[in-house]
Amino acid sequence: MQVLQKLQEKCKSSSSSGSSSSKKYPAMYSSVLSGIILDPAMMVVPVDDHMVHRGHGVFDTAMLLDGCLYELDAHLERFLRSAATARIDTGPFPREALRSILVQMTAASGCRKGSIRYWLSAGPGDFLLSSSGCPAPAFYGVVIASEYEQCRHGVRAVTASVPMKPPLFATMKNVNYLPNVLSIMDAEDRGAFASVWVDDRGFVAEGPHVNVAFVTAGRELVLPTFDRILGGCTAKRLLALAPRLVDAGVLTAVATRNITVDEAKRGSVEMAFVGSGLPVLPIVRPALGGHEVRTRQDPGTLSQQAVIIGDLTEADNASLRTD
């Protein structure tokens, strides 16, 4: 009780200083406790959970805007595919159960703008390497309150110096994000927003937490194929919506294909990061292969931003209301 009291006092102290955890993280779900938690002092994960000490866990996210969870079903489908690849038992947590838990958690939080993040782990049990001693998997979720502002001025990107993950791990959204963390830290050290990985074949791959998109000189929207990188839900949604821009005459075509660094440098007039929370962020000073490339922010990028933002604010099948 003394330890819990100190945690509660710390939370209250943070609240009085204007950085309340209860405001930033208004709700959490834990299958270990079998319920939704509103007290930040109780938002904990068991230290013997194999996700904590062995990295045996997967996660995913969804944007929360005006009380709607954007593309939750698409994210859950990827989440369950990641869990299957990681050999985590999803039997206790079928998709509809997960969906219901996340909607209820978000509704209980009272938050209308931000995001949710959720994890499925091999579960708590022991500190061994094998998860065979874990009685059951564990599911956690949290609501993160934050403000989204679409950046229109663009950012700088550099080629990653940290080796990218092999396809098995790159295509699975697992908690082993150390290469991603080191990659973005390296980019920040070099004055960039993020880095871009180039694979061993010389093709542009992805950023540490985002996909990459190009608009060619012929006004074709191109995204790298997803066979060796994470299939971003926002990127796939952009591919689904972009034909509208072809119909409007802004783009001439939409495609996924491998693109070399040289082609990106010589044949692209626009480049952007695509991902949850951005959702389309122009790259105006990419440094690919050690050489800075001069791109511009043309109507194509602005139109991609507009089509995704419009989709975010539409009350259609892409969004799920929580109120």
TrEMBL record:
Residues 1-25 are annotated as: Disordered. Keywords: Folate biosynthesis, Lyase, Pyridoxal phosphate. Residues 13-24 have a biased composition (Low complexity). It holds the Pfam family Aminotran_4. One of its GO terms (biological process) is amino acid biosynthetic process. Pathway: Cofactor biosynthesis; tetrahydrofolate biosynthesis; 4-aminobenzoate from chorismate: step 2/2. Its cofactor is pyridoxal 5'-phosphate. GO terms for molecular function: 4-amino-4-deoxychorismate lyase activity. Transmembrane segments: none annotated. It catalyses: 4-amino-4-deoxychorismate = 4-aminobenzoate + pyruvate + H(+). InterPro entries: Aminodeoxychorismate_lyase_IV, Aminotrans_IV, Aminotransferase-like, BCAT-like_C, BCAT-like_N, Class-IV_PLP-Dep_Aminotrnsfr. It comes from the Eukaryota. Its EC number is 4.1.3.38. Homodimer. PANTHER family: AMINO-ACID AMINOTRANSFERASE, OS01G0238500 PROTEIN. Belongs to the class-IV pyridoxal-phosphate-dependent aminotransferase family. This is aminodeoxychorismate lyase. It comes from Urochloa decumbens. The lineage of its organism: Eukaryota, Viridiplantae, Streptophyta, Embryophyta, Tracheophyta.
